Amino acid sequence: MNDDKIVVYETFSDPINAHIVKGLLNSYGIECYLSDELMSTLNIAYCAAIGGVKLHVFEKDIDRIQVILKSQNREPELSQSIESKDTEINCPNCHSANVSHGGSLKKKFGIRFALLFSLISVLALIFYPFPLRKTYHCFDCDHEFKKG
Q: In this structure, are residues 139 and 98 in contact, taking their beta carbons and an 8 Å threshold?
């Protein structure tokens, strides 16, 4: 394991929650940073388009981070995080462990959403924010897949 390797530990659909976790980790002396939070705060629809706010940490700190978050009764949200190393998800295409779970980057919306969006557009966009299709994304080979 390379001590200098930076990984995406968790993704958030809400920039506020991302900053809360970042602040908690910083208070324990763990270096981390957020990416894509500015775009997410400009417009919530951008958050879905860019895959959420990402919390980047050093790979060497992951075990310590898990202990800290568990001691604070704050588990990563299953639908928005990379699962723990005990249940590591690998890309079925290239077998890489460099994957994250979040909004699909390729197939953002299905045909049902397109029809629903057209109807809602006519009704002045009553329903907001828009639902996302959740998938795992491999950052090594750019493959998207569902667990199982």
A: yes
Provide the residue ranges of all domains of the chain, joining segments of one domain with +.
6-141
Looking at residue 105, the DSSP 8-state letter turns out to be S
Distant-in-sequence, close-in-space partners of 92: CB < 8 Å, separation ≥ 6: 143, 145
pLDDT at 23: 92
Stretches where the chain sits below pLDDT 50 are 77-86
The CA-atom distances, in angstroms, between 106 and each of 49, 57, 110, 123, 135 are 10, 25, 11, 27, 10
Query: What confidence score (pLDDT) does residue 123 get?
Result: 65
Cα distances (Å, whole numbers) of residue 76 to 55, 83, 129: 11, 8, 22
Q: What is the C-alpha separation between 7 and 28, in angstroms, rounded?
A: 19
Angle between helices 15-27 and 62-71 (to 10 degrees): 100
